[in-house]
Design a protein that fits this description.
With 163 residues, the protein is of the alpha/beta class. The protein has a five-stranded mixed beta sheet with strand order 2-1-3-4-5, with helices on both faces. The mean pLDDT is 95.
């Protein structure tokens, strides 16, 4: 008899996105993304951070102050990193799992990459101009977006596997 308490595909891929987010060095917001094809194969992952070659010790992590003294002009969002990390793989018709609803800039990249569905956990910035613009573009492009309501509130990864 097979095991019954396994996680769904949606929970699995969102878990991968959350695990990717754990790589982010951002002290305030850690976001991860996971792009999956229609056969449930992972095509790419990404998390929010500075571009390759830009030291996280030399660029600012601040959220307030003069624009160039904050993280905002420098950080690459998880969705864009996942698209770029795909290194030219065909993303047409794929699905992206992301912890936080995509901003308007990431929505543009999602549309241009041919991704057809966004699955997200949080929409905490729903009332901001960026998210409103993002939803308008995604809807216009025919991209489905769905908030994942997981059956579990947490999942523990145990690195101590019995031998």
């Amino acid at each position: 008899m097979k095991r019954e308490n396994y996680i769904s595909w949606d929970e699995y891929f969102m878990g991968v996105a959350l695990l990717a987010a754990a790589r982010s060095k951002d002290p305030n917001t850690q976001v991860g993304a996971c792009i999956v094809d229609n056969e449930n194969r992972i095509l790419s992952t990404g998390y929010n951070g500075f571009p390759a070659g830009c030291s996280d010790d030399e660029f600012p992590w601040e959220r307030e102050g003069e624009f160039c003294d904050t993280k905002y002009p420098f950080v690459v969002h998880a969705e864009l990193n996942a698209i770029l990390n795909a290194r030219g793989k065909n993303l047409t018709g794929s699905k992206i799992y992301v912890a936080l609803f995509p901003c308007n800039e990431c929505a543009k990249a999602i549309i241009q990459a041919g991704i057809k569905e966004v699955v997200y956990l949080s929409d905490k910035y729903a009332m901001t101009d960026g998210t409103i613009a993002s939803k308008r573009m995604l809807e216009a492009a025919g991209i489905k977006f769905t908030q994942l309501v997981p059956r579990l509130s947490s999942l523990t990864i145990n690195f101590c596997v019995e031998k």
